[in-house]
Amino acid sequence: MNIKNKTIQELKILAQDIRDRIIEVVSKNGGHFSSTLGAVELTIGMHKVFDVTYDPFIFDVSHQCYPHKLLTDRWEEFKTLRQFKGLSGFTKPKESKADYFVAGHSSTSISLAVGAAKANKLSGENKVPVVMIGDGSMTAGMIYEALNELGDLKLPVVIILNDNEMSIAKPIGAMSKHLSRLLAGKFYQGFKEKVDHIVKNYMPKGTEYIAKKIEESMKLITPGIIFEEMGCDYIGPIDGHNLEEIIDTLQLAKNLQKPVIVHAKTIKGKGYPLAEGHHEKWHGVSPFDIATGESLKKSTSKSATQIFSDKLYELAKEDKKIVGVTAAMPSGTGMDKLINNFPERFWDVAIAEQHAVTSMAAMAKDGFKPFVAIYSTFLQRAFDQIVHDVCLMNLPVTFCIDRAGIVGADGETHQGQFDINFLRFLPNMTLIAPRDEGSFENALEFAKDYNSPLAIRYPRGSFKTLQYPSAQFDTPKIEILKMAFDNSDIALIGYGAGVSRAIETEKFYDGELTIVDLIFLKPLPKESLKLLASKTKKWYIFSDSQAQGGVGSAILEFISEEKLNIEVVSFEYDDLYIQHGDTKLLEEELGILPEQLVSKIV
Amino acid sequence: MNIKNKTIQELKILAQDIRDRIIEVVSKNGGHFSSTLGAVELTIGMHKVFDVTYDPFIFDVSHQCYPHKLLTDRWEEFKTLRQFKGLSGFTKPKESKADYFVAGHSSTSISLAVGAAKANKLSGENKVPVVMIGDGSMTAGMIYEALNELGDLKLPVVIILNDNEMSIAKPIGAMSKHLSRLLAGKFYQGFKEKVDHIVKNYMPKGTEYIAKKIEESMKLITPGIIFEEMGCDYIGPIDGHNLEEIIDTLQLAKNLQKPVIVHAKTIKGKGYPLAEGHHEKWHGVSPFDIATGESLKKSTSKSATQIFSDKLYELAKEDKKIVGVTAAMPSGTGMDKLINNFPERFWDVAIAEQHAVTSMAAMAKDGFKPFVAIYSTFLQRAFDQIVHDVCLMNLPVTFCIDRAGIVGADGETHQGQFDINFLRFLPNMTLIAPRDEGSFENALEFAKDYNSPLAIRYPRGSFKTLQYPSAQFDTPKIEILKMAFDNSDIALIGYGAGVSRAIETEKFYDGELTIVDLIFLKPLPKESLKLLASKTKKWYIFSDSQAQGGVGSAILEFISEEKLNIEVVSFEYDDLYIQHGDTKLLEEELGILPEQLVSKIV
Description:
Two copies of one chain form a homodimer.
Chain A: H1 8-29, E1 31-32, H2 34-38, H3 40-49, E2 57-59, H4 66-71, H5 109-123, E3 130-134, H6 141-153, E4 157-163, H7 173-183, H8 186-202, H9 208-218, H10 225-229, E5 233-239, H11 243-256, E6 259-265, E7 284-285, H12 304-318, E8 322-326, H13 330-333, H14 335-341, E9 346-348, H15 353-365, E10 369-375, H16 376-379, H17 383-391, E11 398-402, H18 419-423, E12 430-432, H19 437-448, E13 454-457, E14 479-482, E15 490-494, H20 498-508, E16 514-517, E17 520-522, H21 526-535, E18 538-542, H22 551-562, E19 567-570, H23 583-590, H24 594-601
Parallel strand pairs in A: 2-3, 3-4, 4-6, 5-6, 8-9, 8-10, 10-11, 11-13, 12-13, 15-16, 15-18, 18-19
Antiparallel strand pairs in A: 1-7, 12-17, 14-16
C-alpha cells in the first residue's frame, strides 16, 4: 500500500482500519497485541516519510510489526497470522521484501542499522535505515554496543524509541527511569533545581528577574544528554499517536543525515480500551472474546511454568538461601510469584541475560542458591557467561530452561531447539529433564541441594500425565518404565518430554517395547545403560532437541567408548530451523508424531 | 601483605618494588604488561582502603591483577607466572582466597559486583565490592546491563574506572570519546559553550558580569552526567598515580554506601619508559630484554594470524565487496593490516562481539562479504547473534576463528576448546579447517565466494609444515594424504591442526597407517567417508576440540545413520577446562602428544 499521497485525515482513518484488523485477527489467532496496537501511528509515519522499497525498515524484536505487515500487501493474508504455513508473527524476509530482517530476539536493531548504514555508504546510496525499538529493548547490552559505534561513525540512522514506559512487564532499571524522567519532563526539572541552587547561592542579590530568564533559557539544553553524549541527536518526547507531529519529526530526523533518536510516547494497547496501559497479560495473547476480553482458550492442566513457579515458591519459603532471576519474563517464566512474595531475593533484571547469569554466579560464590529462569532460546544470549562465569567456577547455579523444544506459533526465532546442544559439552555442567509434573517437582528438590551447575529443561505448556511413578534424581541412573521381555532387543529411550512421546509411540506398536527414561543426560547414567545394553540391541532416542550433538550423540559417544554393540536411531530434530504454527502440525512435518515414528521402528 | 598501617612514603616505595618485580618476571615469562604497570597505585589504594579478606575485590578481565597478586602473599611464587602448574595470569580463586572470581573475558565485573552486593545485603554484612575496570572494558554490553540494575538498586559498590585512554589497541567508540572529554575537562567546555550561547542570545543586555558568574557556577554541574543519569555517583577525574589522591577518594567513595564511579587517569606501562603510552604491542608481551625492550622470542615461521592477514589483504584488494570486523583485537587477529589499508571497509568495533556479528549480518544481507575475525573463546559472546542473525537468515558471513585449540599460557579462560561444539549443530552453518599454510589460503579463497555462513578455525601460532599438497575446499570431500595398504583397517582422521598431529602420530607407529584430512566438518563429506569405510575398520579422530559433541561425535552420528561397522576413537579434549602453561606440557597432561597417542593405537 503506497500511503505517500494520503492526507492526514485519510491516514487517521487508515490507522483505525489497521487497529480493527489487528483486533479482529489477533482475537482469533492470538499474538503480540498491545505493543503492536501502540505502534500504529508510528508505523504509518515511517511509511509516509521513508520508502519501504528503498530504506531498510528495522523492527526491534518485531513484536510491533503487524501494522507494517498490513501496510505491505499482507492485509488479506494477515488472517493466517502465526498459523502453520501462514504469516509469521515476526518480520521475515522470506515472507516479504518489505521485511529487512528476521527479529524475534530483542535489541538487534541498532546493530543491524549500523551494518545497513555502512553498506549504504559503501554502495554510494542514500538509504536511511529507520529503526523502531521499544523502551524495553533498550536494556540489553547489544544496544549500547551498537550506539557506541553509531555515535562514533555518525552515519545517518533514525531510531524511533517507542516508549510505552513498559517493556513486556514493567519498566526496570536505571535507563528506564531515565527515559521516564524524559517523558515526564523531569530531566529538565532536576536540572532546573540544580540551576536554581546555583542562582540562589552564587548570583548577586537583586537579580531575580535574571534568574527567571536563565531558567527559561535552560530549556534549550537537551534532555537527551545521555544520547547526545553517545553521539546521537535526541528529539523528543513527542506524542506517538499524533500523526502530524510524528510525520513532521521523522521528516526532520531523516533530513539531518546523522544518528537521531526520536523519543515517542505511546500507549500500549491503544485503541482497545481493555488492553490500554500497563497490563503484562495483553503483551502476548491467546484467542480472546473481543467484547469481554476473556480468553477463549480453556486452561486445561497445569503448565510446566506453573509447576516451576509453585514448587520454587514452596522451596524458597523454607530456604532463605534460594534466590533467583528472570530477564524480563516474570509471568512467562513464573518468576512473578517469587518476585512478588520475596522481592528482596528474586529479581527481574530486564532484557539482560548476560548480566542475569553472571550476577547470579557471584551470589552462588557467596553462598546463595540461585535459580535462573530463562527460555531456552533466550539463554543463548548468556552462553559465554555460562561457560566463563558459572561452569569454569563450578558454581551451584540452577538454570531453569522453560520453552525447551518446539514452542509453536512464535516459530523459528523462539524454538527451544539448541539448549542441550550448547550446554552438553561444558565441563562441570549437569543436565537433567523431568518427564512429568511430579518428576519436575523432584528435579527442583534435587536442584536445591545440588552443589554445581545444573540445567533443567522443560517444555512449553503442560506435561502429559503418565501412568508411572515420577522420576527420582538422586543419582544418575536410568529408569526403566516398562521392560518388554518379548521384544528384548528394542528399547525406546526418552529424555524429558521425549519420554511421553516414547510412551505414545509404543502404544502404536504391535506388541510391547521396553521404555526407558534417561533422566540424566550429563553425567550419562553409564552403569545402568550398560545393563540395558546387555539386554537390548537397538535403541531409539526421543528428545525435543537438535540431533547433531544432542541426546543421540551422547548415547553414541558412550557406546563407542564402551565398545558396545548397539544400533542407535535418534528421533530428534533435523538440521533446520523449525517454522511456526501449531506444534502438532510442526511435529508432523518433522515426522516425529508417535504414529509416524512407529513405522520407522517396525 | 597487610599495608593498612603503611605511610604514603612507604607505599610509594612499595609501588616501586611491585613495578620492579613485575618487570623482572614478565620480561622472563611474558604476560600482560602495560595495563598491570599502570594499575599499581590504584591497586595499592584498593588494598589500603578496602579489606581484601572481607570486601570482594573484582578485577575486570584481570589483565591488571599482578600488583594484587604481589600484595596477597604471592611475591615469591610470582616467578612461576603463566607457567605450567604455576601462577595464573588472571585472578583465580583456586590459587588464592584473595581472588574473588576468575576473569579472562572482559566486562563481567560490574555484574559480579551486583551479585556480591545483593549477597552482602541479604547476609546482613557490610562488605563493599570494589571493582577495577579499564576504559576498554566499558564498551561491552554487559557493563551497561549491569549498570542498569546497579543504578536502580543503589547498592554500595565502588567502581574504579582505570582510564588509560586506550583499551588494548586504541580508544574506540562514542563512550570512549565521552570518557576522553571527561579526562580532558572538555565536557565542561562543551557545556560552557552551550551556556555561553544562551547567555549571549537570551539574557538582557548589560549583564555580562552575571554571565561570568553563571559560567563559574556551572562547574558545579557534574561532568559524569551519563553515570549520574544511570544512577551512579561520579567522582573524577583523579590522578591514578597519586597515592594520596587515590586513597582519599576511595575512602570517600567507600563511605558513600551507594554506587560510585571513581574515574582515574592512568598511564599504561607507567614506570617502564619504553612501554609508556599508547603501544598495543606492550599490552601482552612475550619474554623481552629489559634494557632494550627487544623481544627474546625469535620469530620463526609465519603465524596463522599472519597468513590470514596477508591473504585477506590480497583478496580485499581485488574485491571491494569484502568487508570485515574485529572486536578490540586488531593486531591479535591480524585485522590491523586491513583496517589500516581499507579503513572504510574494515572496523574495530571495540569489545562488542555481539554487535560485531549482527552488524556484519546486515552488511551481508546488503550484498557485502563480511569476514568476522574473533578468537574462539571470545566468539562465545556472540553465540546468539550467530544463531539468530546469521544462520537463521542464512547469510554469507565468514567467521575466522583464531586461537582455536589450546592457547597455552593464557589458560582456562582463553582456550579455544568449544567453537566446534557450539557451531556444529547450527542449521545453514558450514565448518572447515585448514591443516597448513597453503590450505588456509585456499580456505580463504573458498570463503570469498561462498554464499552462506562459514566458519574457519585455525590455531594460535604457526601451522606445521607438511609434506603434502595443500587442501582444496571446492567440495566437501575428504583428502587421503596417505593410504597404507598394509594396515588397511586403521585410518587416522584429522581435522584442522589435528591433521599434523595425526601425521606425527603415524611416524611413531611401527608400520604405515592411512592418514585422512576431513577438511569439512559440516557438511560432513559423507560419500568419500563411505568409501573410506569400505576400506578401513577403525578410525582415530584428531582434532583440537572438546570431545563431547565434537568431531568424533559428528563421525559417530554419520556411522550410526549409515549403519557402518566402524570403531571410532576420539583423541579430542576430555571434559574439563584446560589450565595454563606451555602447550606441549598441557598436551602431555591431556595425553594427546603423538608419542602418547600411538600407544593407544598399538
